[in-house]
Specification:
By secondary structure, the protein is mostly helical. Helices cover about 55% and strands about 5% of the residues. It has a domain of about 100 residues.
Amino acid sequence: MRHTTFRFTLDPTPEQEALLARHAGASRFAYNQCLRFVSEALATRQINPSVTVPWSGFDLISAFNAWKRSENAGRVFIVAQDGMITKRSVGLRWRREVSAQVFEEAAVDLGRALAAYAKAKALASKDTVSASQRRDGRAAAVTASACATGSAGAEGATSGSPKGIRGQ
């Protein structure tokens, strides 16, 4: 099987360039917003262990979709002529200017990153334990071997003593 690589250069019109920038910005915004959900949930879980942390792509999509329609994502204050102020929840107003898939893909990407982080952290803690056990085992074997051959020295040992230990 032969693999071929192709290189392409984009030459967008100014309108297309603006659309691409809008989608890239929306993706970055959604990723960071989902990361904020995780960070806040982890901090809250320190106080209340029953809090669920959105960790998977599916959980993050659900959390983002609920948030983007909420008052936390955006609100407008309307002032009437009589001075009465009305607050109206509008959610994330510009969400219709980009494809909904942009938000979902950003959430899924973060879910994958979190899964990889959790896996690496689990492997690192497993490696740390096994590496320390290996080091301890090797250190004991080297010490036993050195003592048996007389190559280990001890503080204050006399030169030429059979095991490198004073008094023997």
